[in-house]
Specification:
The protein has 185 residues and is mainly beta. The protein has one domain: Alpha-Beta Complex (Nucleoside Triphosphate Pyrophosphohydrolase), CATH 3.90.79. It is built from two helices and nine strands; from the N terminus they run ββββαβββαββ. Strands 1, 2, 3, 4, 5, 6, 7, 8 and 9 form a nine-stranded mixed sheet that branches. The chain starts with 9 loop residues before the first strand and ends in a 20-residue tail after the last strand. The relative contact order is 0.21. The structure holds ligand 6U4. The site of the ligand Nc1[nH]c(=O)nc2c1ncn2[C@H]1C[C@H](O)[C@@H](COP(=O)(O)OP(=O)(O)OP(=O)(O)O)O1 has 16 residues, from β1, β4 and β6.
Length: 185
């Protein structure tokens, strides 16, 4: 019998602004000040609002949390990560991740995030979600994928991780948000 979910995963986005510097590429992350994941260093992002596209949500969240402004069409859809929290199913999230190669403005702290640039080769993985060590550097190295992250009972450790590279087979039962992934549709 098919498993029926009690709740629908929350649809969220993450943004990865990228900047060239004399010492190499850097990405913008930030210390989350409140809400889900507070105290961790995370990428800017959040929930997709009703009627909003993933791309539109990414641009809005980036502006709200960091002050950076980007044009929606310049964002590059790079991965989807399905976060599953068996110990707290209401926290399940389907996350679309965008690279942000061009933007204007300077990052500034918000109530949500204290942003800072990090070298791609020296990510602050000890202060991030444990699972991000499994997928973030691969994404920044150019891989494109869907990944499934199942958290442990503590809602922090990684119980299971699997990855499916584009354009191979999709993760079964993942809700469709293919509109942002033209190479898949
Ligand atoms: N295991 C995990 N690893 C990771 O790297 N990021 C995760 C994660 N689980 C959730 N996230 C991210 C995805 C999403 O962008 C974010 C949570 O969404 P929000 O920032 O919107 O949550 P908040 O509780 O702050 O809500 P609001 O402030 O009400 O929007 O956490």
């Amino acid at each position: 019998m098919a498993h029926r979910r009690a709740t629908t995963p929350v649809q969220v986005v993450l943004c990865l602004p990228i900047q060239e510097s004399p010492s190499g590429e850097k990405i913008l992350l930030g210390l989350k000040q409140r809400g889900f994941g507070a105290g961790r260093i995370v990428a800017p992002g959040g929930k997709i609002e009703a009627g909003e596209s993933p791309r539109g949500a990414a641009v809005r969240e980036l502006a709200e949390e960091t002050g950076l402004l980007a044009e929606p069409e310049t964002l590059q859809a790079a991965a989807r990560v399905y976060f599953r929290f068996p110990g707290q199913p209401a926290a399940d999230m389907d996350c679309t991740i965008f690279l942000v190669p061009s933007f204007s403005g300077e990052p500034a702290a918000s109530e949500e995030l204290i942003p800072a640039w990090y070298p791609v080769g020296a990510l602050p993985v000890q202060k991030m979600w444990e699972d991000s060590a499994l997928w973030l550097s691969r994404l920044l190295a150019g891989e494109r994928f869907d990944a499934l992250v199942v958290l442990g009972a503590d809602n922090e450790s990684v119980a299971r991780f699997s990855m499916i590279g584009w354009p191979e087979k999709r993760i079964p039962a993942a809700p469709a948000t293919e509109a942002d992934f033209p190479d898949l549709t």
